[in-house]
Amino acid sequence: MSRIRAADTKPEKIVRSILHRVGFRFGLHVKSLPGKPDIVLPKYKTVVFVHGCFWHCHKGCRRANVPKTNKKYWVPKLERNLERDKINKRALKKDGWRIITVWECEVKKELKVFSKLKPLFEEKKSIDIPHI
């Protein structure tokens, strides 16, 4: 468990790289916002969460399995994560933030990430989306 990272994970770095390549500038892990979003684009009033499939129980994903051992520990822990996500997203929406969630399993396919970030690209008119 000590090797589990909360910030600067590989999927997060990939999403940041994509955003940077197309010209976005952003903040990271802004502590003043609920849930300390992974990527914050204040100019567009948008936050991006890059969620790990296991930790945030991505429905339908093979990585989101509850461990077979020590379920008394894991089930409540994962449920707390989901509840905390809901509370944070509700608070961000109330404050007028747009929320984009990118899942760890989606990061492997850049096209999938581009489709998730499409609302941002539409807002920023002068983007040349790289060919994939």
Short description, anyone?
This protein is an alpha+beta fold. The chain is built from 4 helices and 4 strands, in the order H-E-E-E-H-E-H-H.
Give an overview in words:
The chain has four helices and four strands. With 132 residues, it is α+β, with helices and mostly antiparallel strands. It has a four-stranded mixed sheet, with helices on both faces. The model has no long low-confidence stretch (mean pLDDT 88). The N and C termini lie far apart (35 Å). The chain is globular and about 50 Å long.
Shape, please?
A: globular
The radius of gyration is 16 Å
Largest sheet: 4 strands, mixed
- List the secondary-structure elements in sequence, H or E: HEEEHEHH
Question: Uncertain spans, ≥5 residues at pLDDT below 50?
Answer: none
- Coarse structural class: alpha+beta
Total strands: 4
DSSP helical segment count: 4
- End-to-end span in angstroms? 35 Å
Q: State the share of residues found in helices, binned by percent.
A: 25-40%
Q: Strand portion, in percent?
A: 5-15%
Strand order of the largest sheet: 1-2-3-4
Mean pLDDT: 88
Outline the fold blueprint.
Elements: H1 10-21, E1 27-28, E2 39-41, E3 46-51, H2 71-94, E4 98-103, H3 110-116, H4 118-123
Parallel strand pairs: 3-4
Antiparallel strand pairs: 1-2, 2-3
Brief descriptors of the model:
single chain, 132 residues, alpha+beta, 4-stranded mixed sheet, 4 helices, 4 strands
